[in-house]
Design goal:
30% of the residues lie in helices and 17% in strands. It is of the alpha/beta class. The longest helix is centred in the N-terminal third of the chain and has 19 residues, at 14-32.
Length: 181
Amino acid sequence: MTQLLDKNQTRLTPKRVHGRVVNIVAALLRKQLQIPNIYLNPKIPGVTLVDVLAVDRGGSGDLHAVDVKLVVELHAPAQRRALVQTLKTSPFHFKYLAVPEFAISESGLDFTTYPDLFDETGIGRIGILSFDSSILDASSMSSVTAVKVLVSPERFLVRGTKLILVEKFLAKAKPDMEVRI
């Protein structure tokens, strides 16, 4: 299993590291989308958990979901498939997997040519975000530049029956981050 921190870094708990990554990913989405409403760790009944849900255009646009994985093993094909398979079944238009940069470099995997990111229907591709190990160090300043888009996502087809679950949540929930106009 890939080490979360090396010995020279100031230790953070996994919960705090996860929170830092979630925050920086949310900042990236705020920068990329138009007037997004962002929900952190939304608990949507009947839907796979994600770490960040951003709804474009003031809450009426496309749904962007990010699953953050702090410790991943990318060497085995079965483990890589399992990572993306759960995300593929979730009812969001754009789906991202955020993984540590060092896990990608250690595996030697080129995600740009990885076919399992594509939906079986041919409509949709999971985006890959990599985060810099500086995020893991308590003494570093967090910055949106610590997260990179390695593979841009492609829009998934979302059936109306699955979308209803998310829309019910959005009708009741208040965003954790929003643009105030």
